[in-house]
Amino acid sequence: MKKEAACCLFAGLVLFISLNVAAEDGSNSDHPMEGDLHFFHESENQHKHPSGQETSGLQKKIGVEERLGELIHPDIRFVDETGQSVSLREVISKPSLILPVYFSCPQACNIMLASLAQAINDVPLQPGRDYQVLAVSFDAEDTPEKARKAKANYFKLITRDFPQENWRFLTGGQKEIDALLASIGYRLQKTGPGMFIHPNVLLAVSPDHRIIRYLYGLRFLPFDLGMALTEAAAGTPHMSVRRILSYCFDYDSESKSYVFKSFRFAAISIILLLGIFLFFLLRKGNRSKDTAKKGIPP
User: Fold this and answer.
1) Which residues, 6 or more positions from 280, have their beta carbon under 8 angstroms from its beta carbon?
2) pTM metric for this prediction
3) pLDDT tens digits along 194-211
4) 22/31 Cα distance (integer angstroms)
């Protein structure tokens, strides 16, 4: 009876904790794997119009309509910094970070590219094996030569072993650019030659070309990049320590970073402890039965 009671108690606690964790997750409307979630996100870091005038009319058209869980069309073709024509199907074969920028940008794009280069120095993943990076220009006037110069410039900030073929700088025609921006829900406004008002956002994409996470802002933290890439690799068959950690952190849309979920961590810890307790209780019960059958006093 003790074993049956313990099993019922364990099952009841697991059910109670699971329902509370589910309720907590349900209250988070920005869960990374909800493929049907679409909302318009106004960027907080946008360029001002060259004239210095208010751009409220333009800003209504500018922002990100998140398309979490949706596919980026894999047949869109770009040209890399070496002049080679490649499709997204060819270049996205592992978890990927995609940064929409333009290489003649005088402000935000420079900051984002530099911040990304510095942050990946401390991402606890192996570049080339676990992830790759794509900087994609949304300016049809950008050329492979500009991309090559930009790559050489930002690679100077990388101090770890990072194979250069795992950070590509891509350019393309207007048709290809429009197709990519539409597929990721990215809206910008061109205000003149080499001048754009645009959102500042980085995307994490899975190996099967699904959008997993949007990270907003001019600067990126290594931990946020690592968590986003871990989510992007969630389809892999093995469970790593980073995957386990991902259950205890959620992306907070207000702070635009990952936050620790204390209740979820406590729930997982309680379930593990109860499981261990139940295992030893059942093991002790089986031993008592064995000794009784052998006629050995307990």
Assistant:
1) none
2) 0.64
3) 899 999 999 999 999 999
4) 12
